[in-house]
Specification:
Length: 74
């Protein structure tokens, strides 16, 4: 799980999305988002789905970052 959390942060930073913005898109406070990333609270699969949607990647891509499992269509 730790790698997935690091990947989420790497993708978020690569896309220049602030934690506050991502948290707002998820309908949670920035402090709640931060607690997922620091492993203070568990992250659910449904939350991973929402995060992947906001970041514009698949859940599989969150797991395997920086390798992309799902090819980008041209």
């Amino acid at each position: 799980m730790e790698n997935i959390l690091k990947n989420i942060e790497a993708i978020r930073k690569a896309k220049h999305i602030k934690q506050e913005v991502l948290a707002a898109e998820l309908g949670i406070k920035q402090s709640s988002y931060s607690s997922f990333i620091t492993r203070e609270s568990d992250i659910t699969y449904s939350r991973l789905l929402k995060i992947s949607a906001v970041l514009g990647v698949s859940v599989i891509d969150l797991i395997g970052w920086p390798e992309r499992y799902v090819p980008v269509s041209e």
